[in-house]
Design goal:
By secondary structure, the chain is of the alpha/beta class. The protein has helices at residues 25-41, 51-56, 58-66, 86-100, 121-126, 167-175, 200-203, 208-223, 233-245, and strands spanning 6-13, 46-49, 70-73, 108-109, 131-132, 152-153, 181-185, 227-229. Helix 5 (121-126) links the parallel strand 4 and strand 5.
């Protein structure tokens, strides 16, 4: 990747706070406010979309793409891949990709719950995916010995609920993250779910407060000269870096790991 400090803002489009709710208020109520905020801030993001949502809300997906955002796969119906056998996982990925590619190119994947067996990475490769963002640096599974893969792997830096913490707690935490920073949020966080019967980390400071917190986070990184990117942007950088290997002995720079 380039030497500039980079940040990837990603959005997981899924049912509301799965597996606790089975509604889609995030899509019908939260998305518009989120898209307005991104437009006002001039930030393009990567939206990891379930096939289920792409099928039910095609106009929303078209709107994302027309606004310059990227779409990636978030599986078909937000199943936990660690509970699926290999054939079921393959079918879920393929079903999702068949739907999403009706809207345009899809290069990236993020597993629901940021849980994906390393033994299934080959399924993503066979589906024509190039990037996986299913790892999370804050989860113990990130410490597992990585398996060889052709995929570029771009792990999430921090969990989404941290972004809703008070600034005096949140900002030092954000400031400690190393580039490239990968943040994620969910549209349902921008709907007031404070009275819902769901875990505290899902419901606290949801709605307008969460939206205001996200704007503050964007400003935090802008003031530190971070460059906001889409996940697919790393493909060109990776290609350029590979070409640079050939010129290492004549002054070129080797590629950075993602």
């Amino acid at each position: 990747m380039t030497n500039t400090t980079q940040i990837f803002l990603t959005i997981d489009m899924e049912p509301d706070c799965p597996p606790y709710l089975h509604t889609f208020r995030g899509i019908t109520e939260g998305m518009n406010s989120l898209l307005v905020l991104l437009q006002e801030e001039g930030v393009q993001a990567t939206f990891f979309v379930t096939g289920q949502i792409a099928k039910a809300y095609p106009d929303t997906i078209r709107s994302l793409i027309n606004s310059g955002h990227e779409i990636g796969s978030h599986g078909f119906d937000h199943s936990d891949y660690t509970r699926l056998d290999r054939q079921s996982a393959k079918q879920d990925i393929e079903k999702s990709m068949d739907l999403l590619r009706q809207f345009g190119s899809v290069y990236s994947f993020r597993a629901p719950y940021l849980k994906f067996p390393q033994s299934y990475l080959g399924l993503l490769e066979k589906a024509g995916l190039l990037i996986d963002s299913s790892q999370a640096k804050y989860k113990p599974s990130y410490l597992q010995k990585p398996r060889p893969t052709t995929l570029l792997r771009i792990p999430a830096s921090i969990t989404s609920s941290v972004l809703r913490l008070p600034a005096w707690i949140r900002n030092p935490w954000l400031g400690s993250l190393k580039s490239p920073v990968v943040l994620f949020v969910h549209p349902w966080e921008f709907v007031d779910l404070s009275s819902a019967n769901i875990p505290l980390d899902c419901r606290f400071k949801t709605g307008a407060t969460a939206l205001a917190c996200l704007r503050e986070v964007i400003h935090f990184y802008k003031k530190r000269n971070f460059q906001f990117r889409k996940i697919q942007d790393v493909l060109n950088e990776h290609s350029d870096a590979e070409q640079g290997v050939a010129t290492t002995h004549s002054g070129g720079k080797p590629p950075c790991s993602v």
